[in-house]
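Deliverable D2.4 — example input (structure tokens):
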């Protein structure tokens, strides 16, 4: 065994020289390899803080460089180790070029694997250019080109980038990643896929692969397997908690319930299927392809409520009138949900076949009933209906009938100042093919009608009082009226009728509040007062004087 130690004076430039520390043999071939030391057996070099080991090497002392072969091992301090079959090292530039079966290990935590790796010791940067992989304790990343900086644990990947996580796979073209924080910075079109669960699409933002927290920018998209999607200018998303917060142009699509939420601010909780949207909030429901429903409110809430009990089975399913069942406690629950919508303050709704305004709405998908509170008013074609509270009963996405409770009144304008009116404690208005075909007034029923002669002129004002009254309509015109109890009434000639004769006490006309187009739901006209007949007459007289 031979042991050699070479000591070379430092150059005036201050460049650190490469030292040969050990080799079993040293030889020269001046003819074939002039000025080259041929080293074999347990070869060891030192360059400042780095040690290099190999089976054999060519040492270019004058050039301050070496070529190492076989079981190449580079050790830098206590943090960097490099392995490969071949190493080309330049002591002047501190560039180490590893080839074949290359592996770079940082802090025994991060491993870079490739076939061609350049490690710039001067700047402490390693990069590959013919495909490689970086693996840490959580993720495996592959790409065509990659760069790793041990000082800040930062990696840059380009070309067919893939990050494999135990829960998901990330694919993109360019990615920045930190092996210490496990955060991926998204700088190009990126797809993150949780198998059979969630897909995230983004081109700008960050995603922490350990906490599964993310900030997604530039109209990113989150798609769930159940058909839910979430889009926004900025989305903060906590995958583990199932929580998302959106700022700017939020769009949440629920394909199961044929519904989309819009607004500038919103939050969703996937764990309990709860969400809200505000700031220009709008809900669009499209279960009826011929008549979309547009609803605006200051704030809109949606919930998926689980069914809890199956208490009653009707004769439709078991051929008995009624059957009550009492199953064991563990059989009382069913794994289904129903939709609940709550809209608060300044609610405005538009459909082709119906429009509404009120203060708040509560929709219960279990029985398909929408409850309108706070001075609700509904319009269908030429008909206006209002009450203290109104319940809209839906069937197949359209209004089946309307139930007004408390100070209920239905109005239809017949002429410039002539209004057919029906009022009572409660009112049921039934809808068929988009038109009201029956109005049923219950309790203290009052009516004002304007019958016509054959020539279309008005006969007079017909006022009636009864406990109950039903009005049947065909082609939007009154076909006949049925009074179910004793009735008192009077026909007043039109020229003898006073304003009190023409209007019921609860009459008010809110046509100026009616949304005529989808975009009208964002208008905010002042609430119409409920004027008495004299006030209505005075207002109409003023309009005539102006004309």
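Example output (designed residues):
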């Amino acid at each position: 065994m031979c042991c050699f130690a070479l000591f070379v004076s430092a150059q005036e430039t201050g460049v650190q020289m490469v030292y040969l520390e050990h080799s079993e043999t040293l030889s020269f071939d001046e003819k074939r390899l002039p000025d080259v030391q041929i080293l074999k057996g347990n070869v060891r070099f030192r360059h400042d803080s780095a040690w290099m080991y190999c089976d054999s090497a060519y040492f270019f002392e004058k050039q301050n460089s070496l070529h190492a072969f076989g079981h190449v091992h580079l050790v830098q301090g206590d943090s960097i180790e490099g392995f490969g079959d071949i190493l080309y090292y330049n002591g002047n530039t501190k560039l180490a070029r590893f080839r074949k079966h290359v592996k770079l290990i940082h802090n025994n935590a991060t491993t870079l694997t490739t076939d061609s790796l350049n490690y710039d010791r001067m700047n402490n940067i390693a990069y590959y250019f013919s495909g490689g992989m970086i693996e840490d304790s959580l993720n495996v990343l592959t790409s065509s080109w990659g760069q790793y900086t041990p000082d800040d644990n930062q990696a840059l990947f380009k070309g067919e980038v893939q990050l494999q996580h135990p829960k998901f796979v990330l694919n993109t073209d360019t990615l920045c990643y930190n092996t210490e924080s496990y955060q991926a910075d998204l700088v190009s079109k990126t797809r993150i896929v949780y198998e059979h669960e969630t897909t995230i699409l983004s081109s700008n933002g960050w995603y922490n692969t350990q906490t599964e927290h993310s900030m997604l920018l530039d109209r990113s998209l989150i798609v769930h397997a159940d058909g839910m999607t979430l889009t926004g200018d900025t989305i903060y998303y906590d995958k583990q908690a199932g929580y998302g917060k959106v700022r700017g142009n939020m769009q949440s699509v629920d394909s199961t319930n044929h519904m989309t939420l819009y607004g500038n601010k919103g939050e969703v909780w996937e764990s309990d299927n709860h969400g809200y949207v505000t700031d220009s909030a709008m809900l669009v429901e499209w279960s009826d392809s011929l008549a979309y429903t547009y609803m605006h409110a200051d704030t809109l809430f949606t919930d998926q409520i689980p069914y809890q009990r199956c208490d009653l089975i009707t004769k439709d399913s078991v051929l008995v009138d009624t059957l009550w069942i009492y199953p064991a406690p563990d059989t009382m629950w069913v794994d289904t949900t129903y939709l609940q919508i709550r809209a608060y303050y300044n609610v405005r709704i538009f459909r082709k076949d119906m429009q509404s305004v009120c203060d708040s709405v509560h929709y219960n998908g279990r029985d398909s009933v929408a409850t309108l509170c706070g001075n609700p008013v509904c319009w269908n074609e030429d008909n206006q209906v209002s009450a203290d509270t109104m319940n809209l009963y839906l069937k197949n996405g359209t209004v089946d009938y309307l139930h007004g409770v408390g100070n209920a009144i239905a109005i239809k304008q017949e002429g410039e100042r002539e209004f057919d009116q029906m009022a009572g404690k409660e009112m049921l208005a039934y809808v068929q093919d988009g038109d009201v075909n029956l109005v049923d007034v219950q309790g203290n029923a009052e009516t004002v009608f304007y019958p016509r002669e054959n020539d279309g002129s008005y006969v007079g004002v017909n006022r009636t009082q009864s406990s109950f009254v039903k009005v049947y309509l065909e082609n939007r015109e009154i076909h006949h009226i049925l009074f179910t109890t004793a009735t008192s009434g009077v026909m007043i000639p039109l020229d003898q009728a006073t304003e009190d004769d023409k209007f019921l006490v609860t009459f008010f006309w809110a046509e100026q509040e009616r949304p005529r187009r989808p975009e009208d739901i964002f208008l905010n006209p002042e609430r119409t007062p409920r004027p008495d007949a004299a006030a209505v007459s005075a207002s109409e007289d003023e309009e005539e004087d102006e004309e």
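The longest strand covers residues 398-413.
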